[in-house]
What we know:
The chain is α/β, with parallel strands linked by helices. 45% of the residues lie in helices and 17% in strands. Strands 8-7-9-10-11-13-14 form a seven-stranded mixed beta sheet, sandwiched between helices. The termini are far apart.
Amino acid sequence: MNIAQKLIWKQSTIFSAIITKKEGKKMKKGLMIVLSLVLIFGIVGLGHSADVKKGIHVGNAGAFTGDAAAPCMEIYNSSQIAVDEWNAKGGIQGVEIKHIMGDDAMDPAQGVNVAHKFVADELMYGVVGPPMSHIAQATLKIYGAADMASITTAASKPDLTEQGYKHFFRVNARNDAHGWNCALFMKQNLKAKRVAILNEKTAYNVNMAKETIAGLKKLGITDIMQETIVAGAKDYSAVLTKVKAFKPDVLFFVATTAPDCAIGVRQAKELGIKAIFFGTEGARDKNDFIKAAEGAAEGAYVYHFAPDIYSISEAAEYVKKYESTYEVLSGFGPPAYEAMNILLSAIDKAAADGDITRQEVLQSLQKTENYKGILGFPVTFDAKGDLKGGATYFFQVVGNDFKQVAVMTGK
């Protein structure tokens, strides 16, 4: 008896018990309870068992319009390559996989709309994304209630996996790892003694600044300036003037998107700030950061959740396919290719008997251990859904590209 059959049997037992009482009010109340249960299970898809032949859908949630469109489209396109490869081999149980885009435009309200759309699709068995922590937080409960597997490639706020949900997984390290590693990098590699930190007020940025400051203080660096900035601003000169007066060794610019980082590094140069510019993962974009900075990014550093993919032999075929179709590859695509392959592998296992449920997909994902793909390290999820042994990768802008200069694992 599968999950759906057990639910139907349980509901029918309750219904029969209510009828035998033959008490008007109690019967009415009981019927309402049963109908509510049926409605809830119908909406969220708990235990929904379907013939695989009806179709297999996978979602991709991200900001496909706006300032974060470039990295998010890299995520989508890399996921599409994985889907195309599976379909070329016959899909899942001979069924072609359909890859559906859900644009949240970095807006939590739109992210919620995307989540509702995805969970309402009875043929949807998993989602890659959302890649941003504040969208992931806004949609966590919706996907969780529907047993919808979600694999983020970038959302790093620690408490996303500290709330008891069993549907949310990461192929990236968390901010409590990144923050400490960034602090180590500033001290050990950049020889920082005075640090200025400018951060946006979104979930990821605030948390990243907090974790980094905690790390710096633990390492004995207490001469720290912190100010907030506004995402999408075209002028950071006012706050950068304060930074100039502070005379830091390192300016940690904690912005979400590459265009904001490009403005930040360009204006810092224009104001004559001598500090080393250190950008976040969002800055690892050849066009929207390096090219947009018009030379000002030369020598700047960024951290990222993914390694230099060009140095990994297992990734060569993926790189060839991506660049021949979509041209410029930064660092956001490889984890998405990995995440989609892991998701499709779980769906494939869940569908092995011809029927499939979202819960079966989750159970398969939870058993992911030592998955070897293109990232140069095996992927294993812990009990919370976090990546075991995640690292932070550091790059320096050299010419028109990023050169990986260090890998930090908390030591």
